[in-house]
Write a structure and sequence with these properties.
The structure is a single chain. This protein is α/β, with parallel strands linked by helices and about 250 residues long. The protein has ten helices and twelve strands. The protein has an eight-stranded parallel β-sheet. The longest helix has 21 residues.
Length: about 250
C-alpha cells in the first residue's frame, strides 16, 4: 500500500483555494500530495491552463466531484474539465435524495455511469451518513450499488461517513472490493467530529490494508471542517498517513 498515491479533496482547503488557487495547489504538492480531487472550483482557469498548472506542480487529477445537474449531461462543464486535465473519475453525492426520492437518485446514478463510460471515464458514488438509512431492512447505499452496473458505477467510499452512519468502514471496503478505485480516507473523532488523519479513532492500518486488498488506486484525504488552519490540517494528515504507509 505504500506505493499507492495520496490525493486531497480540495473541499478540505476550499477557503485557501478561493484566496489563492495556484498557491494552494503548490503548497499541497510541496507537502507531498500526489493528486487533487476537484470540487466545483477550477481556479477560474480553462481546462488546458489548469492541466498545465497540474503538470508544472507534479500533481495529477485523482477525481472531480460534480454537481447533480451535470453528471448525466455529456456536454457539461464537469466532463469538459475531466477530459481537459486527464481526470479518470467523476463522482457525486446525493445524500439529500435518500428520503426524498431514492429510486430516482439511483436511476440518475446509473445514467451518469453510462454517460461517463461513453467518455472513457469511471463514475463513482460518494456516500455520506444518510445512505445508511434503511429501506426494507437494507441500507440505501447497498441498494444503490446493487441496482447499478458494477462496471460503470464505482464506490468512492468515505470512511468517516460510514462510521458515522453506524457501519464498519473496513467491512464496507472489503464488501465492495474491486469497485473502490478511490477511497476517501477521513478520520473520525470520539464524538463524531471531523479531525486530522491519525488523530481520531479510525484504525488506519486496517483501513489501508483493506483498501490495498480491494485494489484501491487512490487514497484521498478529506476533512470537512478544521479547528486549525486547513493547510496545517492537511500537513498533519499527510505526515501521519505517511507514517502508517511506511
Amino acid at each position: 500500500m505504500k506505493d499507492t498515491p495520496v490525493g486531497i479533496q480540495l473541499y478540505s482547503v476550499r477557503g485557501d483555494c478561493e484566496k489563492d488557487f495556484a498557491g494552494t495547489l503548490k503548497a499541497l504538492a510541496d507537502m507531498g500530495y500526489d493528486g487533487v480531487e476537484f470540487a466545483w472550483n477550477y481556479g477560474s482557469m480553462p481546462p488546458d491552463e489548469l492541466a498545465d498548472l497540474l503538470r508544472s506542480l507534479g500533481l495529477r487529477a485523482c477525481g472531480l466531484h460534480a454537481p447533480k445537474d451535470q453528471i448525466a449531461a455529456p456536454d457539461s462543464q464537469a466532463y469538459a474539465y475531466a477530459a481537459g486535465v486527464g481526470c479518470p473519475y467523476i463522482s457525486v453525492s446525493l445524500a439529500g435524495d435518500v428520503e426524498k426520492d431514492w429510486p430516482a437518485a439511483i436511476a440518475l446514478v446509473q445514467e451518469a455511469g453510462r454517460v461517463a463510460a461513453g467518455k472513457g471515464i469511471l463514475f463513482s458514488y460518494h456516500n455520506h451518513a444518510q445512505e445508511f438509512h434503511t429501506f426494507d431492512g437494507k441500507y440505501a447505499l447497498d441498494a444503490l450499488y446493487e441496482q447499478t452496473d458494477p462496471t460503470q458505477v464505482m464506490a468512492e467510499l468515505d470512511t468517516h461517513w460510514i462510521a458515522r452512519g453506524g457501519a464498519d468502514p473496513v467491512a464496507y471496503i472489503r464488501k465492495y472490493a474491486g469497485r473502490v478505485p478511490q477511497l476517501h480516507l477521513k478520520d473520525i473523532g470520539p464524538n463524531d467530529e471531523f479531525i486530522e488523519i491519525g488523530r481520531g479513532v479510525l484504525d488506519l492500518e486496517a483501513v489501508l490494508n483493506a483498501a490495498d486488498d480491494a485494489g484501491s488506486k487512490w487514497i484521498i484525504y478529506e476533512q470537512d471542517r478544521c479547528e486549525r488552519p486547513a493547510l496545517e490540517s492537511a500537513r498533519i494528515s499527510i505526515d501521519n498517513l505517511h507514517k502508517v504507509l511506511g
